[in-house]
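Hmm, how's this folded?
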Amino acid sequence: MAFKILIMGLSGAGKTTLAKNVVNAFREYQCTATWLNADEIRELTNNWDFTNEGRILQAHTLRRMADDAPTDIVVADFIAPLPEQRSIFNPDFIVWVDTVNKSKYEDTDQCFQAPAYCDYYISEHSDNHAENILMTLFEKNE
């Protein structure tokens, strides 16, 4: 089973850009990596339900896809506003991208609950985050 990394935070925080950079960084280290972008998965599964039930279904879908990935690493970027979603996805490593105070989705902003714990916290944009995340992971797993 792949090592699962969740990159979470509000819409517009920079999750997708960071996820792409993290996946590319892993590949530079010769690790196989799968990238699961929540918007692309919603389009693939035609799940545009943003009720609590729809969000839970999305978390289950992402977990199933991550668990079935044939790679060493899975990087999933999705808002994951609820602790229940994060628990369902069951990441091995959480990156919280906390660079915006509100998004274009008021309903998401209202239900978003900050994680009680994260492995890597981002409060401002930087080109170094992907490499720093890898270094943090390598140090934790030595």
The mean pLDDT is 93. The chain has one domain: 3-140. The domain at 3-140 is CATH 3.40.50.300 (Rossmann fold).
